[in-house]
Amino acid sequence: MAKTYQVDPAHSSITFTVKHMMISKVKGEFKEFDIKANGEPDDLANASVRVTIQAASVDTNNTDRDNHLRSGDFFNAEEHPHLVFHSTSFSSKGGGEFELTGDLTIRGTTREETFEVEYEGSAKDPWGNTKHAFSGKGSLNREDYGLTWNQALEAGGVLVDKKVKFEFELQFTESEA
User: Fold this and answer.
1) For the chain, first and last CA: distance in Å?
2) Burial level of 10, CB count in 10 A (0-12/13-18/19+)?
3) Model pTM?
4) 3-class secondary structure, 130
5) Tell me: the pLDDT tens digits for 95-115?
6) Nearest CA to 140 among 168, 174, 163?
7) What is the rounded distance in angstroms from the CA atom of residue 33 to the CA atom of residue 47?
8) Rounded to an integer, what distance in angstroms lies between the CA atom of residue 177 and that of residue 85?
9) Which of 5-9, 13-17, 23-27, 159-163 has the lowest mean pLDDT?
């Protein structure tokens, strides 16, 4: 029987990087998210994952930029409070590495995306709880989700790149089904 897992937010992160002015990178993270997973960590073929991210929890360490990202120019967090990912398949690449494919919804637009995932292992914490860890990465074109705001630069190029790279470090605790 498949087990149920709950993300441990104190030991997990979802971060992103995007090029700024075509020359530097801005990093940020989502501070509030929930992830529920079902399956067996050593055999993810039949596993399922649902990720719900609070759009308003975006944090780039700059209040003005964060407020702009929450606005209608980007996430429109008031009308679209969540970014949601539902897995549709895991495929093994061997050696604890997988491709995770699913439907990602941002600003009411849903598209299929694939992320690279690595199973980092399991361990018991000092209180006897079994923990499982995963890391992953991927990228997407933000304009595919209606996040099209930009400004042309005088020297050529644009202020914000289309490509956004994501990384995640996740730790799960087995929970009662």
Assistant:
1) 10
2) exposed
3) 0.88
4) strand
5) 888 999 999 999 999 999 999
6) 163
7) 19
8) 21
9) 159-163
